[in-house]
Specification:
Distance between the termini: 30 Å
CATH topology of the largest domain: DHBP synthase
Number of domains: 2
Number of strands: 14
CATH superfamily of the largest domain: DHBP synthase
Shape: globular
Number of helices: 12
Bound molecules: adenosine monophosphate, magnesium ion
CATH class of the largest domain: Alpha Beta
Order of helices and strands: EHEEHEHHEHEHEHEEEHEHEHEHEH
Strand content: 15-25%
Strand order of the largest sheet: 1-8-2-3-7-4-6-5-9-10
CATH architecture of the largest domain: Alpha-Beta Complex
Radius of gyration: 20 Å
Length: about 350
């Protein structure tokens, strides 16, 4: 492939401004025209960077699968500017979708609903449902408005690798396979959306994410089925459920006794990366003195941890390490999404 690298255009929307600055509007106009022509644009969202194409354009959607090397059996999430746009893509709008989206949209929640014929087969992997999300990032929604169509957008990375949380990650991972990158800085949540199947009763969490079980239960007024209960529901239902996913190239291990594990790897002459919430502990400090360990201090709050997780993995992947060791996160609702991503990254 001898295509040039895509332009990376900075976009921003200061909180105190009623509209984005003119350069940002110009960048979004260019992105919208590439999308209208069937092209691929990497877009910022509040979760991770997405690789967008017009969702109703089957050829453009095929290009997403080709650029990512994604199996055709993995359906895509369709992003909308507002809830009415989502209803236009659904054959029916279940009560559960209504309740969840009334309080949690715009935001990092994807709902799976019966699909309208407007959606090409490639988007849904031939299935009878479609996954839709209304992002809270104002620039994502403005771009969708300008494109005038919903945008299919999986994470902007090669299939099975770590999702991008910066424009630089996208450029490294997809480079000349795509037409343009919009750069709005690091993503706020840093992990993929919570996905809830609203076609079952009770609704099922297909993928844990920034919206916790507790918040789903509150919005719904009743409990949702826990992700662990459906962990083996099958790949066509939720591609994020593939056992190995979100993985760095460097082998990754979760450990309940990470300082001991790091110590023994160092004793074997290995070079080790270590994500730890206990960077200040005496055991960590003494191990950190070795030249062969890269200690990455991680926040003790799960949302803050998630926000920097993928950037930490992308950075460690460049350090020529033999192993990345990660302290096993607590088994609680707040940590569920982080545990999910790390345990998939650790599946060899
Ligand atoms: P990503 O590649 O990171 O964008 O992940 C796509 C996610 O979309 C998967 O993990 C699924 O959970 C979800 N998804 C998309 N379409 C569907 C669908 N029709 N049914 C269930 N899940 C879906
Ligand atoms: Mg992905």
């Amino acid at each position: 492939m001898s295509r040039p690298l895509p332009d990376v255009l900075p976009v921003r929307w200061p909180a105190d401004a009623t509209s984005p600055p003119p350069e940002t509007v110009a960048a979004l106009e260019r992105a919208a025209s590439i999308l209208a022509g069937g092209g691929l644009v990497a877009i910022p969202t509040e979760t991770v960077y997405g690789l967008a194409a017009v969702a109703t354009d089957a050829d453009a959607v095929e290009r997403i699968f080709a650029a990512k090397g994604r199996p055709a059996t993995n359906p895509l999430i369709v992003h909308v500017a507002h809830p009415e746009m989502a209803r236009g893509l659904a054959a029916a709008w279940p009560e559960a979708a209504d309740r969840l989206t009334a309080t949690l949209w715009p935001g990092p929640l994807t709902v799976v609903v019966p699909r309208s014929p407007r959606i090409p087969d490639a988007v849904t992997a031939g299935g009878g449902t479609v996954a839709v999300r209304c992002p809270s990032h104002p620039l994502t929604r403005l771009l969708i408005e300008m494109a005038g169509e919903p945008l299919a957008a999986p994470s902007a990375n090669r299939s099975l690798s770590v999702s991008p949380t910066t424009a630089a990650h996208v450029l490294e991972g997809l480079g000349n396979r795509i037409d343009l990158i919009l750069d709005a800085g690091p993503c706020v949540h840093g992990i993929e959306s919570t996905v809830v199947d609203c076609t079952t009763d009770p609704p099922l969490v297909l993928r844990p994410g920034p919206i916790t079980q507790a918040r789903l239960t509150e919005a719904l007024g009743m409990p949702v089925a826990a992700p662990s209960a459906i962990a083996h529901a099958g790949p066509a239902r939720a591609p994020g459920q593939l056992p190995r996913h979100y993985a760095p190239r460097t082998p990754l291990e979760l450990s309940d006794t990470a300082s001991e594990r790091v110590g023994s790897l160092l004793a074997e002459g290995r070079r080790v990366g270590w994500l730890t919430v206990a960077a200040d502990a005496p055991a960590t400090r003494s191990l950190a003195a070795s030249r062969d360990v890269v200690v990455v201090p991680m926040p003790a709050d799960p949302a803050a941890y998630a926000a920097m997780l993928y950037a930490a993995l992308h950075a460690l992947d460049k350090r020529d390490l033999s192993t990345i060791v990660v302290d096993t996160p607590p088994d609680t609702d707040g940590w569920r999404a982080v545990r999910d991503r790390l345990s998939r990254a650790a599946t060899a």
